[in-house]
Design goal:
By secondary structure, this protein is an alpha+beta fold. The protein is about 35% helix and about 25% strand. The protein has two domains: about 140 residues, OB fold (Dihydrolipoamide Acetyltransferase, E2P); about 260 residues, 2-Layer Sandwich (BirA Bifunctional Protein, domain 2), CATH 3.30.930. The strands form four sheets. It has an eight-stranded mixed β-sheet with strand order 6-10-11-18-17-16-15-14, sandwiched between helices. A five-stranded mixed barrel has the order 1-2-3-5-4. Strand 12 and strand 13 form a beta hairpin. Helix 8 packs antiparallel against helix 10, helix 12 runs parallel beside helix 13 and helix 14 runs antiparallel to helix 15. The radius of gyration is 29 Å and the shape is elongated.
Length: about 475
């Protein structure tokens, strides 16, 4: 039977319900217990024979003479319900059988008992339609076999796969535990604008829009960094934000265009001190999310409990490429990229070349959780230069299993150096680099008032997808997908 045929049959049943004088979509529900509460209190409820009212979606139906066994799932748990003509009357039973389908949301009331097979069940004395479903559940027609279709119809996927619902409960614990940790550390949670006149704080191509009220072009933020550092200038000592970020970049296992990110900025702190805080943060969040500090990612074991290694960017780069970043030229980097089959045609400048070579040839070798530290200044225009080597910056990245999972650094607070680096980024943009950062005169002016020594760090929901070993799109409720024409 085609899907339209199923739909037409259900619409006919809907009409019959209305003709009988019942409302197939009532506003009121008289539920007394969630299903999980019934199961948790089952011995007491069975002994008392108290009236219990549950409500939920009917997920299975098995008929046997004048008795029908159904499974009701309300999102907390699922349990068996016995619908019998001897309890609800023949008329009520006949109506149930004739108009209720798998996928409908119903209310049933009665008392609980254990069947001869040991199944904890509710013996229904009454039932009532709460929501008549018009479409059959996916597996009842063609199913949702295609991964893209499951993402397009996430609501149906969640109905059919309780493990997917559980995934997002974990994700809630992930962000909640992070928020709790940062608040306990003395952080102040803030909100900064999503619409900005100048996108900044990261190397990414922004989405553009227009505000009619002020008749100005704006961008969706690619990072809250510059606004959060403005707050540090304004006198706050520890601020953080958990919010949406928008970057007009490609889709792969680790990247989305629209996602949630946390950024934190601690005044009077440097990147070495911040690494200690971040190590404790990740362990805290991993434990709250997974219940353990060990898990696997793409077949590799990950143990967050061990001391994290410090990996020198220059040393590991030379180890895997043979190139010395202290002296290598842009021309030599281009030649290496060509020889290794790395497409560097869209990468303008020495910093971009270093970054793309690193991602292709070096990062895949970084397996154990650790901090990758002290990269060249060319690739980080917002970080403070190292006091030991001004051609490097005090930056760290969390790396594990060949992935980058977060980044932090001692923040650049020298306004003249910041202006010079913005100017270099502007030249890269004029040369065709769509991800180059732009001159932000107001941010430079803020630094000219004086920003105390500050360290900042950010991570996104990529870390959650890493914890659960799933492509990041599958860990988002409603990711953008190509239209299904």
């Amino acid at each position: 039977m085609a899907i339209d045929d199923f739909r037409n049959v259900r619409i006919e049943k809907l009409t019959r319900i209305r003709e009988s004088g019942s409302d197939p979509y009532p506003a009121r529900c008289e539920r007394t217990h969630a299903v999980q509460d019934v199961l948790d209190s089952f011995p007491a409820l069975e002994a008392s024979r108290d009236r219990v009212v549950i409500a939920g979606r009917m997920m299975a139906q098995r008929g046997h003479g004048g008795l029908t066994f159904i499974d009701i799932d309300d999102g907390s748990a699922s349990m068996q319900v016995l619908i019998g003509a001897d309890r609800i009357g023949q008329e009520g039973y006949d109506q149930f059988v004739s108009v209720v389908d798998i996928g409908d949301i119903i209310q049933v009331s009665g008392s609980v008992s254990t069947t001869k097979r040991g199944e904890r069940s509710l013996e229904a004395a009454e039932w009532r339609m709460l929501t008549k479903g018009i479409l059959p559940l996916p597996e009842k027609w063609h199913g949702l076999e295609d991964a893209e279709e499951r993402l397009r119809q996430r609501y149906a996927d969640l109905i059919m796969r309780p493990e997917e619902r559980a995934l997002f409960v974990r994700k809630s614990a992930f962000w909640q535990s992070m928020r709790e940790f940062l608040l306990q550390e003395g952080g102040l949670e803030v909100e900064t604008p999503i619409l900005e006149p100048i996108p900044g704080g990261a190397d990414a191509e922004p989405f553009a829009t227009h505000m009619n009220a002020l008749d100005i072009d704006l961008f969706l933020r690619i990072s809250p960094e510059l606004n959060l550092k403005r707050l540090i200038v304004g006198g706050y000592q520890k601020v953080f934000e958990i919010g949406r970020i928008f970057r007009n970049e490609g889709i792969d296992r680790e990247h989305l265009q629209d996602y949630t990110q946390m950024e934190m900025y601690w005044a009077y702190t440097d990147y070495e001190q911040l690494m200690g805080i971040v190590e404790r943060l990740v362990r805290h969040v991993a434990k709250a999310t997974l219940g353990t500090l060990t898990h696997s990612y793409r077949g590799q074991g990950v143990d967050w409990s061990k001391p994290w290694a410090r990996i020198d960017y220059y040393e590991v780069f030379q180890q895997h490429t043979g190139l010395d970043l202290a002296s290598v030229t842009e021309k030599e980097l281009k030649a290496y990229a060509v020889a290794e089959g790395i497409d560097a045609s869209q990468h303008v400048g020495r910093g971009r070349l270093i970054d793309v070579i690193f991602k292709k040839k070096v990062r895949p070798h970084l397996i154990e959780p650790g901090f990758l530290v002290l990269p060249p200044v060319d690739i980080e225009p917002l970080a403070k230069r190292s006091s030991q080597d001004p051609q490097r910056v005090e930056r760290f990245q969390i790396v594990a299993c060949g992935s980058e999972l977060g980044k932090g650094f001692s923040e650049l607070n020298d306004p003249l150096d910041q202006r010079a680096r913005f100017e270099e980024q502007s030249r890269m943009g004029e040369a065709g680099d769509k991800e180059a950062q732009r001159m932000d005169e107001d941010f430079v002016r803020a630094l000219e008032y004086g920003m105390p020594p500050t360290a900042g760090f950010g991570l996104s929901e990529r870390l959650f997808s890493f914890f659960v070993d799933r492509p990041i799109r599958e860990t988002v409720f409603f990711p953008l997908t190509r239209p299904n024409n």
